[in-house]
C-alpha cells in the first residue's frame, strides 16, 4: 500500500469529514514515527493527546498479546475483570469518586452535560424549573455529537447542524466575572458588551 493509492481509496470510500496531512505512517517506536518511505518524525501530537503512550512499548505489547489470547471485549451487560481496577487507578489519579467509561471525547462531554442537568434537577427536587443553561467557552471544541456541537464556541462547527441543544451561553476564557454575570441571562449581554468596550478601550 502506498500514499497515492490510500488517498484515492479514502476519497472514494470515506465521508470527507477530515482533511488529512499527506503522510502515511507505517510504524512507530517510543516518541518516533516512520512514514512509508522510511522518513522519521518526532511525534509531538500523540494522536492529539489521545493514547499518549508512545509506540511499541514492551509492557503494552505484552499486555495486549496476553489479553487478546484470553478475552478482549464483552458487553457491559456483564462484569469484566479489569473495569473496577482501571476505575480505581483513574479515581486515584483524578481525586474523583467514580469513573464513567465511554468510547470518545465527545461522549465524555455528553456525559458531563447530562450529569450537570441531572444534578440540577435533583437539587431542585425533580422539579421542572431546574437550572438547565450551560456556560461554554468561546473558541472551544468539544466534539461532533449534538450536545458537544451546541457547546462548541466556533460558529463554523455549529451552524451547519442547527438547531442544536438550546440554552448555551458563550464567554471568553478565564474571565470569571463575566462567567458569573452570564449565568444571569438578562444581564449577561449587557455585562459582556460593557466588558468588551472596556477591553477595546484599554487596548
Ligand atoms: C478538545 C477536544 N475535545 C473533544 C474532542 C472530541 O473527542 P472525540 O473525537 O474522541 O469524540 C476533541 C477531538 O478532537 C478535542 O480536540
Question: What key attributes describe this structure?
Answer:
about 200 residues; mainly alpha; Aspartate Aminotransferase, domain 1; 5 strands; disordered C terminus; binds pyridoxal-5'-phosphate
Question: What do these coordinates show?
Answer:
The structure is a single chain. The longest helix has 19 residues. It contains 9 helices and 5 strands, in the order αβββααααβααβαα. It has 203 residues and is mainly alpha-helical. The chain binds pyridoxal-5'-phosphate. Pyridoxal-5'-phosphate binds next to helix 5.
Give the SSE map.
Blueprint: H1 3-13, E1 25-29, E2 32-35, E3 40-42, H2 46-49, H3 58-68, H4 83-94, H5 105-123, E4 134-137, H6 146-150, H7 155-158, E5 168-171, H8 176-182, H9 185-202
Parallel strand pairs: 4-5
Antiparallel strand pairs: 1-2, 2-3
This protein binds pyridoxal-5'-phosphate.
Amino acid at each position: 500500500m502506498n500514499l497515492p493509492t490510500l488517498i484515492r481509496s479514502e476519497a472514494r470510500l470515506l465521508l470527507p469529514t477530515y482533511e488529512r496531512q499527506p503522510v502515511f505512517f507505517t510504524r512507530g517506536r517510543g516518541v518516533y514515527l516512520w512514514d512509508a518511505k522510511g522518513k522519521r518524525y518526532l511525534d509531538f501530537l500523540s494522536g492529539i493527546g489521545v493514547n499518549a503512550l508512545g509506540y511499541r512499548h514492551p509492557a503494552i505489547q505484552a499486555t495486549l498479546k496476553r489479553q487478546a489470547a484470553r478475552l478482549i471485549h464483552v458487553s457491559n451487560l456483564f462484569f469484566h475483570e479489569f473495569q473496577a481496577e482501571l476505575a480505581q487507578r483513574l479515581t486515584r489519579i483524578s481525586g474523583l469518586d467514580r469513573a464513567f467509561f465511554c468510547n470518545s471525547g465527545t461522549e465524555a462531554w455528553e456525559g458531563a452535560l447530562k450529569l450537570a442537568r441531572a444534578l440540577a434537577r435533583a437539587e431542585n427536587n425533580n422539579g421542572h424549573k431546574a437550572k438547565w443553561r450551560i456556560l461554554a467557552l468561546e473558541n472551544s471544541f468539544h466534539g461532533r455529537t449534538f450536545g458537544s456541537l451546541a457547546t462548541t464556541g466556533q460558529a463554523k462547527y455549529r451552524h451547519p447542524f442547527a438547531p442544536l441543544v438550546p440554552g448555551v451561553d458563550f464567554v471568553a476564557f478565564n474571565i470569571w466575572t463575566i462567567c458569573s454575570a452570564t449565568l444571569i441571562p438578562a444581564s449577561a449581554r449587557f455585562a459582556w458588551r460593557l466588558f468588551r468596550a472596556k477591553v477595546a478601550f484599554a487596548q
